Amino acid sequence: MRNYLYHNLEMEKPNPCLEQMVADPFYRRIGEDLKRRKAQNRWREIKPWLPPRIDLSSNDYLNLRSDPAVLAGAHQAMEDYGSGSGASPLLFGFLPCHQELLDDLLRWKNKPAGMLFNSGFMANQALVRHLPGPNDLILADRLIHHSIAQALTQSRAAFKRYDHLDLAHLEELLEKKSGRYETVFVITETVFSMDGDYPDLKSLVNLKNKFPFILILDEAHATGVYGPTGGGLAEEAGVLEQVDILVGTLGKSLASMGAYILASIPPVIDYLINFSGEFIYSTFMAPSQAGAARAAIGVVQSANDKRVRLKVDSIWFREQLAEMGWERDAFDSPIIPIHFADEREAIKIGNALLEKGIQTGIVRPPTVPEGTARLRLSLHSGVDRPDLKTVLEVLKSWRK
Ligand SMILES: Cc1ncc(COP(=O)(O)O)c(C=O)c1O
Fold first, then answer.
1. Together in a domain, 75 and 173
2. What residues pair up with 161 in beta bridges, in sequence order?
3. For 312-328, how does the pLDDT look when each residue is reduced to its tens digit (9 = 90+)?
């Protein structure tokens, strides 16, 4: 039987399909690209999910995917509105369950206008590709998520990256460039998906007093985890009001699938409804997704005990890693990267963990910059201290 658990470290047996491709220029080109990727140990493949003993790879931070209230929300919406939405949102697909979900999100994050998308990836694409105009500038964190990075190259606006989390660099760029553009957009994740670190949001919004810009925050990994009601890092920092546009996914702490964009100025939403093909031309999210997310919001808002425990565990786990000699970062999010200069090391230790039934993310370039391969451990409420101690034991024996 094929072993689904292992990431291949060495080149596998020659692949007959790749061998046959040499004659045709198209097949030769893609075949060579694939061979190169394999030789670099960067081969990606889809593997059926097998339940690990300890999962440290999902983003379901509060462990709500099997929560009875969330499942009941999904069932109820499906019973009320059917298994699918049946159409794109402007035709027929935007159903009362979607409106109810949107209303809850707007109340939660205290914004006057918003819309839903089928995924966070699509939401970010829509935002960055359509909102900034040809006379505008987008300043984005250097390690911004691919859904934004890819869209930057397709936007009508100019763009420039500032060094990761480096607000002094951002300020320098704002000072140098602001006057030359009609509108400047600044876009960043709050909690970064691959590093678990985050910018100082209070200082970031303070920059708006010096240089006018539209601030866009992607709260994908912070929603549910930060803030007294799980509203995200902007809620925690008390700066929600100063954020012009908030993006978030329903696919992580909200235990569903889909996304939202919320805005302080309603015409931003009107604009996207009118000009974003990502929204207009795609069958809208299934009612069960909306029902699950809506129920999850209710659970998340009153899950402070889970949030506190997750933070305590995330800090404790970092301290344990530091005791083993790994570098301690200054953050407390549940995303904990363990870096390896040699990506083969990341694969080997990831495999050693898998052998014990512990699933982590083995993340290599090009997903992360060269020389920063890592194990990405995402803690969540479904793992307890004994589980974490088991993980640490494996890491410790590897370290020795
Ligand atoms: C920061 C960030 N933004 C957006 C997305 C995309 O969200 P979705 O999974 O809903 O497409 C992700 C998901 O990995 C993410 O990490």
1. yes
2. 140
3. 999 999 999 999 999 89
Same domain, 164 and 187: yes
- Supply the pLDDT for residue 67: 98
Predicted confidence (pLDDT) per residue in 142-181, tens digit = 999 999 999 999 999 999 999 999 999 999 999 999 999 9
Q: Which residues of the chain have pLDDT under 50?
A: 1-6, 11
291 and 367 inside one domain = no
d(CA 125, CA 127): 6
* Best of 144, 189, 193, 247 for a ligand 1 pocket test (most atoms within 8 Å of beta carbon): 193
Q: Is the CB of 196 under 6 A from ligand 1?
A: no
- Answer yes or no: is the C-beta of 193 below 6 A from any ligand 1 atom: yes
Q: What are the residues facing 186 on neighbouring strands?
A: 139, 215
- 200 lies in the same domain as 279: yes
Q: Are 208 and 215 in contact (CB under 8 A)?
A: yes
Which residue's alpha carbon is at the smallest distance from atom 16 of ligand 1?
193
249 and 335 share a domain?
Answer: no
Domain CATH code at residue 378: 3.90.1150.10
Name the residue of 221, 249, 261 to mutate for ligand 1: max ligand atoms within 8 A of Cβ: 249
Whole-number Å distance between alpha carbons of 290 and 257: 8
> 10 Å Cβ neighbour count for 173?
20
Statement to judge: residues 86 and 202 lie in one domain: yes
Rounded distance from Cα 15 to ligand 1 centre (Å): 32
| 249 CA → ligand 1 middle, Å | 6
